[in-house]
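Morning, I've got a small favour to ask if you have a moment. I owe you a coffee for this, so here goes:

…
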Amino acid sequence: MTTSTLLLLVLSLLIAGILSYFQYLYKAKNKPKLSLFLAFFRFTSIFCLFLLLLNPIISRDNLVITKTPLAIVVDNSSSIAFLKNENKTKAILQNIQSNTALNDKFDVQVFQFSEDFSPLSNIDFRGSQTNIDLVANNLKSIFKNTIFPTVLLTDGNQTLGNDYVYSFDPSNRVFPFVVGDTATYLDFKINQLNVNKYAFHKNKFPVEVFLQYSGSKTMEADFSLSQGKTILNKQSMRFSPSKRTQSLTLFLPADKIGLQLYKATISSKVKEKNTFNNVKNFAVDVIDQKTNIAIVSAINHPDLGALKRAIEANVQRKVTVVKPNDIKDLTPYSVLILYQPNSEFKSVFDANTKLRINSFIITGNSTDFNFLNNQQTSLNFKMSGQKEDYLPVFNTQFKLFDAENIGFENFPPLQNPFGTITTNAGVTVLLSSRIRVIDTQMPLLVFAESQFGRNAFLMGENSWKWRLQSHVTNKSFEKYDVFLDKIIQFLASNNSKKSLVVEHERFYNSGEPIEITAQFFNKNYEFDEKARLSISLKNKGNKQTKNYDLVKGNNTFKVNLDGLKAGSYDFTVQELNSKTSYTGSFEILDFDIEKQFVNSDVEKLSQLATHTSGKVFFANQEEQLIKTLLDSQEYKAIQKSNSVKTPLIDWIWLLIIIAISLATEWFVRKYNGLL
C-alpha cells in the first residue's frame, strides 16, 4: 500500500470522525450512550464508503508447494491380455497409484497408451497397436521444461513408431516395470515379410521373408508358401543358438489378374507356446499393364530425374526419358511430359494431333513460348527475356481431383521468364503464383479439359527443389510423390467425369485403419457439400450386412471401418438423393501384430532404463520401485511465495457492513423518535 493511500485513509478516518461527532455528539440533546451508539454506526458507514471510493489494494503473500510430477503410464494394448497379464498389470498399477507416501511426495498423473495416448480412463487391453514412442513425445509436450520421473508399465513389445529407447528425454529418468513372462521359450516366428502391393501380369514378383528362432537347441523347421490349397514353395530350415535368423527371397509368378491371396507358414515338430506368429497372410494385386509415360526433353536438367523417380514411386508407372528427335512412335505411351518445348518438339506435337495423348507441359527459361502458343489453345504466353522466381499459392477450391496442400507455402520458387499468362475456357488453376509478397494472380499449375482430352501445365523449372523440400519437411518423399501421381492418374484417364468417386484399398491387414473416402459432384462438377452418402457393407462369409453414413470432411466424405474381422467384403456407396452408387470390394487379411510375441522385451526396456539413468523392475517389485522413488533426493517439492493483490472493492463483507450499519442506525433513530 502506497504512502499516498495511507494518507488518504487517515484523512478518511478524520472526516468520518468529525462528521459523526457533529451529527450526534456536538451539543448533543440525546442520552450520551444513545449518541455514542449512533455516532459509532454513522462513523462506520461513512468510513466504509470512503474505503470503497479509495479502493486500496491489499497485498498478501501465499506459500504454494509445487510437487514434482510422477507420470505412471500403463500399456493398454491387446498383447497384455494375450500374454494373460491383464489382472497382474491392474494390481501393479493399483499398488503404485494408491501409495500414500508417493502421493505426498509427487503429483501423480496416470496415463494409458496403445496406438494412441490419453489420461487413464478405462483399461480394457484392447488396443490394436503399441506405440511407446508416442508416450515419449506426449510426455515431453505435457511436462515441458520439467524434471520428472516416469513409471512405464509395459511388456516392451512395440509395434508402431520409432525406436523408443532414444525417444525419451535422457534427463528424465524412466523406470520400466516389466509386465509379462521374461523366460525364454522355444519359438519359430515369421518376423517380417516384404512384398509389393502390386505386380504386373505375366511377370514375377519378389517375396522377402525373415525368419526368427528362439531356443537353446539346434532345431529344424519347415517353411512353406501357399496359395489356397496349392503349395508354391516348401523347404527345410536349420536353426541354432548361433544361427537364430534366416532370410529367404522367393519369386512368384503373377499369372492371374486380380487380388491374389497367399500364406507363409513356418512349423516344427515341437509344440510352441505361441503359434500365431508362425503364419503370415499377404496379398498382391496383379494388374494387366503399366502406365507408360514419356518425358520428352531437348535439354538436360535435374527436374528430369526428379520427375522420373517421383512417378516411378508408384510401381504401376514406367517412365522413359527421350529427346524429341529420337521419339518415333507415341502409341506406347499413355501420358507425354513435354519438358520446356521448343521448335525441336514440332514432330512430337504433329504426331500427337491425331493420337490426342494427354500431355503435361512444363515451361522454363529454355522454352520457346511463341512456338508453344501455336501448338495449344489453353494458355496464351506473353513472356520477356527476363528471369523471375515464382512462389506457389495453393487453391483450396480446386475440385478436379482430391489434391492436398503438401506444404506449398514453404516450397522454394520455380524459375520462369517474366511475363503475362492468360488462361482460356476449360482451364482450372491448382496453383497460382506470387513474386515475393506480391500475388500475381497468374497461374503456376493448371489443368485443361476439352472434348479432345486433358492437359496440364506447370510454369517454371526447378521442381526438383520441391521434392527435396518435401523430404526435408516430412522426412520422406511420399507426400510429393503421391501428389505428382495424382496428376499422372488424372492425365492417364480419359474417362468421362463421374459424379461419385470412391477411393479404397483392395486389401487391409487386421488392426490397420480401414478408411473409405468418397466425393460427390453436381452437374457442374462442383463438390456437393449437401450430398448424403451411405455405405452398405456385406461380409461374404457370414452374409451379414451393415450400413454406415459417410461423414463430410474437407472436400470429401469418409467412413472409418476399423474393427472388422478378417474376411472378404463387398460394399456399395450410394448418394441417397440422386441414387448414384458405386460398388466395390476389399479383403481383410488375418494378421494380429499384437499376438506375435511370446514374452516381454526385457532387453529393450533395460536399454531404455540405462539411457535415462533409470532402473528396470519386475513382477512383485512394486515396493522396491516405490522405495527408489521415495529415497531419491532429486525430486523435491518446491515452495514458492505468490503475492496476491486484492482490490478492497471486491470484498463483499465491506458492503454487508455498510448495509448493517446504515440499517441499524435507521431503526434505532426510528425507535427513539429521532426521524
